[in-house]
Amino acid sequence: MDPFFMACSLFRRRKFEECTKICTQILDKNPYDQSAWVLKMRALTEQVYIDEVEIDEDGIAEMLDENAVAQISRPGTSLRAVSASQNSLSMAMRPVSQSGRPLSGAVRPATQSNRPGTMEQAIKTPRSAYTARPLTSSSGRFVRLGTASMLSSPEQFINLSRLNFTKYADVPNLAKPLFEFIFYHENDVRNALQMAALATEACQFNDWWWKVQLGKCYYRLGLFREAEKQYLSALKQNPIVDTYLYLSKVYVKLDQPLNSINRLKEANEKFPFEISLLQGIARIYEALGDNTECMKYYREVLQTDSTNIEAIACIATNYFYNDQPEVALKFYRRLLQMGVYNSEIFNNIGLCCFYAQQYDMILSCFERALSLANNDLQLADVWYNLGHVALGVGDSSLAYQCFRLCLVYNNDSIEAYNNLGVLEMAHSRNDLARSFFQAAQSLGSNVFEPNFNNAYLAHTTGDLQTCYQSLKKAIEIFPNHASTKDLLKELEQKFSVL
Amino acid sequence: MEKEATEDTKKQIQISYDNDWLNAYYDPVAGTNSHSGSIELADILADGDNKLVTANYSHVKSELKLKVFKGASLIKENNLVDVPTAIISFFMDNLQPRVPAIGVASGSSIFVYKNLRPSFQFTLPQVDVSGVEKDIWAKAKDGTADIATMHDTLEDIRRGGQITLSNRSILMLGLSNDEARRFVDVFKNSELKRNVIITCLAKMNKSSPDEDAINVLLVGTELKTIYVIDTEAFTILATMECPHIPVFLNASGLFDVEFRVIAACRDGCLYTYKRGFKSPKSTIPLSSQIVGIEKSGKNVIVGCMDRSIYCYTTKGKKLWRLEMPADILTISGMEIKSKGIQGYIISLNNNEVHVYNEKNILSKFKTQDTVVGIKFGKFGREESNLIMTTRNGGLIIKILKRAAELKPKDAHGGPPEAQLKKLDIPKKTKLYVDQTTRERDNAILMHQTFQKDLYKFRIKTAKEFLRSLQTSTTPISTNPNEPLKINAQVQGIGPTFKLIVKVQNISTTAPSLNLFMTFIYDDKLYKIPKSLIELPILIPGIEYPFSTFIYSISNQLISDNIKVLLCKKDSNVPIITAIISMPVSEAEF
Q1: Positions of the TPR repeats (chain A) (predicted)?
Q2: Domain residues for B137?
């Protein structure tokens, strides 16, 4: 059989390693075989190809990003200062992640992390793979995939520094695979940009594809305004879904979520029933903390694709925190039926059962969640929830053990520290309680409960200074917390009395 | 829920953009640093055109000024010798045309200005100092006193609180030993007297109720006295004793017939005086410090530091209390005779100014800056002007619209608005009903299953908990011998990280001894230069931070856990352990 035909066939069957091998052999014989050269490039690219639309983890360098126009924005127009303060009572109803966002139903890139306000905060944040951690752009997924493949092929396939881009830019058949190779495999954005710029010039700026690629390069380089220009120009020539998604990402980066939503809605008119667009809108609304709109769009997603896991999970979470655990239970069961079989799902079903008073199911679900957990953080979460079940049963020593076990698996669990503090306070071991609250306070700057509890404890023991300081912190995080406000008022009255 | 929120904000906006006032003038840098007591509106040139006079305080002596404004323009500036505490306009003669004088109180003197020129200075008589203090300084004069003992005795007297020291002694107390010696050398020969510092001014008519009749001045001093001063001859007509230092005065009536003086003092009490009495007729104790007092009919309106406005009768009976949304900064009276409106104006710390009549709000608006001084009255030829000075020395002038109807605005009866709001409680779903039916039908079975599970679960938890204690993997130890808590954080972006471990002894009494800290890590990935940290004695309740650097030496982008062990010497099991999941290093080592 013709080895090249064989290689093509392997490529089609996505056996890229073998395809690369055959191409290498062909190229060893005839280094100027362009078709083999292109095929090898494509095979290598496919191995490390990532969906550009989904990757959206903010890096540590992003903090120095000055693209956001307004430092202090009007409420509801910025992703930066999103906190529960906007929708008045949400913080008491729905917990937040360590970065202060309301919990989402699905874990995606960027649901866990938030743009940290200052460099200091970013460096200080307790960082592990699952907590709010700022990554640098260089240690994100791009480089890791790139270098991993580099390691496997010690001798370099194409030496970019010796490549004459102008020669290839004129030939569209060669230029596009070469660009993708440079962009994805080599992860050399500068050279990719140069290549794209030459190629788009070569086709007299008539090819939208090159414009999108230019946009991608600019986006990676952090030149969002230029990326926006390229995408807009590409959209004028040929409106496709991907470009709209890229454009919406640019606006999110520029901290213009409303603009981003508008673009997606505009695209949705052109491409109705396109899930990725609807999902995109829903995600941005979620990030903005607008739950009603978010749910509306997730529902639309479900109308088109009734097996969309993200949508089901998010809707379920929303029902759960809106006091309808029985409905949430139904959604989670649907997920289970669809074959999602992991620790989280059983954990959630267990919780829903507990709050919907279906007691016979609770503990078996949690047990299964414990046995399915494949990392410590999942275990910590399950033990934490079991602690709540124990509290509900009224067995405070069992709850105490559960929270302690949660701490074994996750040393940074703010909630567990806080609850342990409350338990100690109930047993009037105030010194211990205080040390737990202080630990919780030092771990998380976005959770108001330990601050309030510490204030309450300080108030009962008469340490008004500490009480006032803790209250100030709590009210900063959650301005609408009624008990904090009451206590603060009482204190202020006390301070002003003669 | 959201809909109601927006309605709420709308309502607030309606009130805050009150359109009873015309914005006449705003100068953020007018340089008028004056409080309500040092702003006056008076026809000081007798041309029927009221001028605005402000006395400005400042830390810089050259900026202590008396400013006169005609309209928006400054027509005269006089330098002041000392920081002004109050100014007042009063009539001191019977000459025609009637020209009021301006009295500026600063230090122990009242400087009288007439026709824009300084004309007279009246200084309150000095007072003898107490015998003890005199003795001390007499010794100093003889040269027999030791500076240190002198300092100590004076300090004792000051702390005793019975005797008020002279300014000289107080100044000396603030100096270091060397400086004090020089200070004593310079001043020991001059006679020791106590100056009387004026705190506040007020006026009332002497014998005729006419508006331009001759006034007497009431002067409150740091000596806890109130003097009544005749303005024709500048003699002290009467002296009233105060239990504490008066800071605000309010006087009504005629000095020769019958009058009533209300003094607000620094001890948070109001004292009322009547003609012929040296000591107060009645005392009104308040629960907080006083910010300002104002008369409203026969009652007294008092603004206090607890964000409240109180209303008392002059006999001391509390009538009502109003709570303000922010701290009250100043209060000033308002009277529009042509409309028969009497009220008072208060400025709040949130940049709002409210106008009240009794306890009804008449008008309210936001200002550009925090208002610290307010004066309402005739300015220029226009009645009803509101002069406001801001915290940063700005000047705001507003004119009450002629068509403005100042009527009580929030005279709403019935239940408060919040009561009408509906709570956003989701309806019970059909699912819920189904589930409760299931619960009812299988109650016994469900309960049994749950109890059985619960027993199993208790055992499982206890086992796990025991295991964690035996392996010391918890970050808290409740072992009664070594109750400790550990908490570790990693900072930095790599390849060098800083590990900060905080250890706290959570026992109440016993300190922890003989502890050290060490780490378990993969030596192919990380290097920790200080792999053993000896802990000092740990006092209960204090968090001790310990730190070390961690170098990531691998060039592969992987990360691992590092265990921090806290151990006791001569024991082979760690007391507690903290596990840190290290972040990926951003750069290669």
Answers
A1: 343-376
A2: 131-187
